[in-house]
Amino acid sequence: YAGLQRGARFAVYDIAADRTSRENLALVGEVLDSIREEQFILHYQPKLNLANGKIEGVEALVRWQHPVRGMVPPGDFIPQVESTDLILPLSRWVIEAAIRQQAEWHASGLKLTMAVNLSVTNLYDESLLKDVRALLKAYGLRAESLEFEVTESAIMADPVRALEALRAVRDLGIHLSIDDFGTGYSSLSYLHEIPADIVKIDRSFVTRMNDNEKVGRIVESTIALSHYLNMAVVAEGVSNRRHLDTVAAYGCDAAQGFLIARPMEASAIEDWLKKADWPRPEDTASIGP
Ligand code: C2E
Ligand code: MG
Ligand code: MG
Ligand code: MG
């Protein structure tokens, strides 16, 4: 009887999960129309420089303002879109919108770096880099102010091919970040070959590092290892004061997370930067914005 009950519960759960994935899959067919109808929007999450307490840049994070489903987070459609070629037009939209916003900020004196998340499929789209170069030129931006974030697992899915594509990005001068580092079954034999400028330590490590000594040591030594390999380190998911103090003590270069700020619309970023009241590591608190 208990087994039956358990079975029944699983059945209900499966139906719900299946409906969600079917609904999310149905979204994929709407991507092209939705780009045309301007239903996508970028929010921006600030990145705090831990050495000087300043906001050095932002990461663009896409959202879908769906007429029926409301604000849909990227986790509900990016994985599905990524499994199709529609990730090409969507990423192009994201890149251009981010570059346009960055140019607007630069023109008004806000010199922020801009990070854009890319799928591994985008790396194999040879015309993308050409178009990005043209966009940077058209908007008068230096390649070095742009950053592409690619997840470690995407790189490791086909490291030989990915590394070649990453080198082409690097050759252009665009900075590269390994996103969600630590979750991608990375092999130490590839780490030194990835031509990245930045390692972003996944939120799951930051969340656990103060409760689990070994996780703390992993974060600390990942920071040291990245530095030895000439990469800067960003801690993701810094959501309380202790997270911030710990990663700062470990020598981390920058931090992102809800403690500092949630992702915001462009206009909200501008207001927030003016207030300059984000938390800073102790020894930079006196430096000011
Ligand atoms: P990501 O690139 O690792 O971005 C960080 C995610 O963690 C964001 O979720 C952000 O809102 C969230 N986050 C930041 N700080 C905290 C924190 O302190 N606590 C918690 N709980 N969460 C935090 P979001 O915006 O839902 O994006 C999820 C993922 O979707 C991104 O992970 C990225 O992999 C993907 N994504 C977002 N925008 C794009 C895009 O334009 N293109 C592609 N290909 N992927 C995107
Ligand atoms: Mg990212
Ligand atoms: Mg990440
Ligand atoms: Mg992530």
Automatic annotation (TrEMBL):
Residues 24-277 form the EAL domain. Keywords: Membrane, Transmembrane, Transmembrane helix. One of its GO terms (molecular function) is cyclic-guanylate-specific phosphodiesterase activity. It comes from the Bacteria. The keyword Transmembrane applies. This is GGDEF domain-containing protein. It comes from Thioalkalivibrio denitrificans.
